[in-house]
Structures are given as C-alpha cells and as structure tokens.
Fold:
Amino acid sequence: MTATTMSSKRGVLIVVVGPTGSGKSALAVELAKHLRAPIISTDSRQVFRGMPIGTAQPTAEELAAAKHYFIADREVEDDFNCGKFEVEALALLDKLFAESDYVVAVGGSGLYVQALCEGMDDLPDADPAIRESLKQRLANEGLESLVAELRVRDAKYAEEVDICNPARVMRALEVCLSTGRPYSEQRKGTTAERSFNIVKIGTEMPRDVLYDRINRRVDMMVAEGLEAEARAMYPKRHLNALQTVGYRELFDYFDGECTFEEAVELVKRNSRRYAKRQLTWFRRDPHTAWFNPNDIPAILAHIASFKP
RNA sequence: GGUCUGAUGGGCGAGUGGCUUAACCAACGGUCUGCAAAACCGUCUACAGCGGUUCGAAUCCGCUUCAGACCU
Structure:
C-alpha cells in the first residue's frame, strides 16, 4: 500500500486474528486502550446473548475498558451471517471513524474477517424455503442427486466445488434456484475497496502452549458454569447459533450419550481442532503480521507504520 | 532356577503363511464468498531383536531381550 492511497483513507482498522484461546481479546483491549479506539468483534458466536462463557466473550472488565460492538447484542433466534455482518459493520465503521482514527476488530471467524476486509459478492441470503427443500432432498435422495442438478444448473461450478461437501453443493444450488442464474456467474471474487486502511495482526505461539491454554480455558469455563449455561440453551439446541463447540458436546451429555467428563474432553478436543482450522485459514493471508500477543510494544510499532 | 503367556504404528486394537492402507482415536496438513466455533478433503504402511523353515512370514521354528503370571 502506498503513501498516497493511504492518505486518502479515513483511519486504520486494526484487525486482530488468531486461533481461539491465543489471547486475541486481551490484546485487542490493550490496543484499544493505547489507541483510544473502540472494538468491533468479528466472531460469529460472541454476537449472541446467553452464551458468554462458552464463547469466551470479553469479561466485564474488558468490556468496561473499551467500547465493544457485536458482542451479545442479538438473540440466538436472530438470523446472522457474514453478509449481514459486512453491511452492519461497514455502517458502524463509518460512524466510528468519524470520531476515532483507529478501530480495533477482533475475532476468530475467518469468513467474517474476510467479509469485513475484502467484502462479499452481491449474493442472496439463503431462502429458508429453498434451503429446507434442499435439506429434504439431501436426506431423501442423497448428495449425488444434488450434484447432478448442480451440473445442469451450473456446470462450471460443479467442476470446481468439493462435491463431497453437502454444505457447498447446497449453497450453490440455493443461489442458482433463488436467482435463476448460475452461482459461478455471480461469484466475482473481487476485493472491495474500503475507505480505511487495514492492518492485520496475528497472535502466534507454539502449538503445545496454545493447546495447553485451550485445555485450561475449557476447565475454567466449566468452573464458571458452562454446564448451566448450556442447559439453559438446551431447548434451543437446534438453532445455528448453538452449533458451537462447548454446547453441542454438553447437549450430548444431557441426552445421556456420554458422561460429563467425556463431554468436557470433547470440548477440549474440538476446540483444538477449531484452533487448527483457524490457523489454516489465517496463515493463508499474506497481509497478516504475526506476533507474540504479549509483545505490545512490537505490535504498536508495527501499527505506527500505518498512521492514518 | 523352572513353566507358561505375551510383545503389533503416538494410543487402543484386529489380523494364526500369500489382496489386509484393518478399524478406531489422537496428531498433522489442507479447502473455504451468506448456517463458517459450520461443512468438508487428505496424510501418518507398524508388527521387540537376530537367525532359520518356505517360492513367500506379523503369522511357523530356534535363540536373545523385555513384561506379566505361576511353580520350586
């Protein structure tokens, strides 16, 4: 990014990414305090109310230290996705940058970060009726049937999708059906222009240290009352918001499918796997500079090179 | 000292001469454009050691080492 393009921008969005349990939230608060910046969350689960422990939402202390957005500000019944997030977050940033040179974004949802920084193509939300019928067909006719239809409606995309992945096949079909046009034709893959500069910071640490932190954090969640939180959500377990590590495993325990101890072990394992997937996602972005999350001076120095 | 049993990849655990990548778990790598903490894909070829029998041995025989059980 050149100095001339930078000078036309309104401010700097500091995007903190990294695997779960790597200290993103705490780092974000530190940066927010130093830069007098608000924080917006790029986490697909922390947006919901009623699940503060299992999703490791910022603590009351952290929330008091900086203004947070997209934290526990909607119900689990509400539809939310990366597309909605992009629209709402951009509108919010427009206001925030009117008052602050810096805004910090933190969260572990790679797709949300992508939506915020690169933008999503203009594709429709899922039509509930279409999605439901596709789910039925998947259950009744199998994935092959859906793949066959995709070949007819969008041969190009059928060639490149992972045809073993029902979620991808269904989404493509869903877009074809709701727009009457091939999915691949509408998927531009272009990177949106943003009115602010973006600095991406990744939190990095040795794998064994990370895993140890994750394991201990799960134990802490249990100590803080994860079970009761999950039990309160049990009646809503079919909602997408509850398809979340830390809850699904306890739902299985409530259903008598495993012991409590086994459920907790699974929460740990699935958190580790989630962390690994996050790393795979975030490592791919060459714009991310990786730091030890405790090395605030180095991180601030890096940010300073992107003055608004 | 003697007898017996066992020794399989990080773990568990099949497989008793000739497709076995056993399976599973963990771990690791990867994919990713509206359910993304989701949904997927891939990798990890071991048989305690040595020698022998055989066209061919994880599988049969002998010795060695180790572990366990039992006997004196």
